[in-house]
Amino acid sequence: MVKNLFMVKSLNSKIKSIKAREILNSRGEPTVEVELKTDDGIFVASVPSGASIGENEAKELRDGGKKYFGKGVLKAVGNINKIIGPRIKGKNPAKQKEIDELMIKLDGTKDKSKLGANAILPVSMAVCRAGAASKDLSLYKYISQIYRGSPPVNLTLMVPTPCFNIINGGTHAGNKLDIQEFMIVPQKKLFSENLRAASEIYQGLKKILKNNFGEQAINVGDEGGFAPPISHASEALNLISQALKNYPDTKIGLDCAASQYWKDKKYQLEGAVFTKEGLLIFYEDLIKKYPIIFLEDPFSENDWQGFQEITKKLSNKIIIVGDDLLCTNPRRIKEAEKKNACRGAIIKPNQIGTITETIEAVKLAKSFNWKIIISHRSGDTCDDFISDLAVGVGADFIKSGAPARGERLAKYNRLLKIEEEIKS
User: Fold this and answer.
1) What pLDDT shows up at residue 50?
2) For residue 2, what pLDDT band results from cuts at 50, 70 and 90?
3) 292-296 and 319-322 as β-strands: parallel, antiparallel, unpaired?
4) Which residue in 178, 119, 196 sits closest to 413, CA to CA?
5) Phi, psi angles (nearest 5°) of residue 384
6) Fewer CB within 10 Å, N- or C-terminus of the chain?
7) So what's the pLDDT on residue 40?
8) What are phi and psi of 135, to 5 degrees?
9) Contact at 8 Å (CB) between 121 and 350?
10) How far apart are CA 373 and CA 100, in angstroms?
11) By the 8 A CB rule, do 2 and 383 touch?
12) How far is residue 325 from each of residues 186, 223, 303, 346, measured CA to CA in Å?
């Protein structure tokens, strides 16, 4: 969502001003938007917010009080306008790491709780866009240059495989499904072909739900997936299987978000109580019956033993992915590798707070031969930064919700343009 309101190429670009404001995200809740002005233009960035939030994520700063039920972000806005802005004014936006490290130092906490990750990240994103413009590069090419430490000369960049959330549950929907995301992962060669397949499957599923449950079943959750009145994972997977009848090469991914059903030191889902061993058997049964390619957060964020057991037993069949387990945090990623707890990482910039740290997390996970899934958040904006990020770091997958709703399609439509540019 780079908004270059004017564009005059500068050989030595400097940050001239920065302004932040409070806007609303896709859930109608406040978030932060930044406008950064350089000699090359004005660059805009806004940050998302999650519903299922890992305890090791960088912290958002919220205002408290009655306004917006305590979720206002004017404190974070003030920290940008009064603290961060004056300190980065005059700096070269191509110095991404230097500026990110300055903001980390200004904050001075391990979890960015002083200034707020929702203050630091939009500045980092806007700086990255301005840096790309100063180098006269597309954002994804510029990110690739930062990631690899050199210009992407003769480098073959690829658009990652998309994962589309078509049935919502958990904290993303008002139904009784405990598992949070049921995703389809088409296996076509081109992103444009995968997007088309996803759209057709989504519309086909809509008809199936309407025929089975009536109009109420086609209401959607936070990420644009349908939220039908069902309560069992097998029900959702059977409905998706019907929609995949003419798309046999399409896989399924599940974001279990198991921390949400870890209650009273037990796993409680679908009206039953599971031990760790019982939950592993539950997942094994699903994998036998359905073409599942990955499980995200199959155990609670601090259940290292559960992750170790499922990785040991199933990683030769599917990808075990950490999200709440890892929180895009290098320290957690290193621990997970040491404990052999997963084989894939969800990467969310707002979990760590700067673009430099996000790229470092990707590098680390890739050094362990893990799969990388760049991800949106359930409370998102129409900012499409993660599309360029996914291509720039060579991610294996990207997930941005259903092939519906503007804030989700902004990412997918940006990937269409990137693919067109790469092909040409």
Assistant:
1) 81
2) very low
3) parallel
4) 196
5) -110, 20
6) C
7) 95
8) -95, 0
9) yes
10) 23
11) no
12) 26, 21, 8, 9
Sequence-separated (6 or more) residues with CB below 8 Å from residue 82: none
Q: Which of 37, 348, 371, 399 is catalytic?
A: 348
**Residues 115/76, Cβ–Cβ less than 8 Å:** yes
Q: Closest by alpha carbon to 309, among 335, 284, 273, 274?
A: 284
Contact call for residues 305 and 276 (beta carbons, < 8 A)? yes
Q: Tell me: the pLDDT tens digits for 51-88?
A: 767 788 999 999 999 999 999 999 999 999 999 999 99
Residue 309 designated active-site? no
Residue among 232, 173, 182, 224 at smallest CA distance from 51 = 173
Q: What residue type is assigned to position 214 of the chain? A: G
Cα dihedral 149, 150, 152, 155 in deg (nearest 10): -80
| Residue that is written with structure tokens 């309101």 in the block | 5
Please tell me which residue, 52 or 332, carries the higher pLDDT value: 332
pLDDT (tens digit per residue) in 237-296: 999 999 999 999 999 999 999 999 999 889 999 999 999 999 999 999 999 999 999 999
Q: Cα angle at 204 between 201 and 210, to 5 degrees?
A: 140
Residues of the chain above pLDDT 70, percent: 96
Look over the chain and give the mean of its residue pLDDT values, rounded to a whole number: 94
Q: Is 348 considered catalytic here?
A: yes
Decide if 129 contacts 414 (C-beta within 8 A): no
3-state secondary structure of 264: coil
How far apart CA 220 and CA 102 sit, in angstroms, is: 41
Q: Are 103 and 109 in contact (CB under 8 A)?
A: no
Radius of gyration of the CA atoms of the chain, in A: 21
DSSP per position, 360-389: HHHHHHHHTT-EEEEE--SB--S--HHHHH
Quote the tokens at residue 275.
């031990």
Q: Which of 48, 117, 28, 105 is nearest to 76 (CA)?
A: 117
List the catalytic residue out of 33, 223, 296, 309: 223
Cβ 352 vs Cβ 389: under 8 Å: no
Per-residue pLDDT tens over the stretch 227-236: 999 999 999 9
Q: What is the DSSP letter of 23?
A: E
Q: How far apart are CA 237 and CA 222, in angstroms?
A: 19
Q: What is the pLDDT of residue 7?
A: 44
Q: How buried is residue 368: exposed, middle or buried, by Cβ count under 10 Å (0-12/13-18/19+)? A: middle
- What is the rounded average pLDDT of the residues 217-224? 90
Query: What gap in Å lies between CA 109 and CA 58, rounded to an integer?
Result: 10
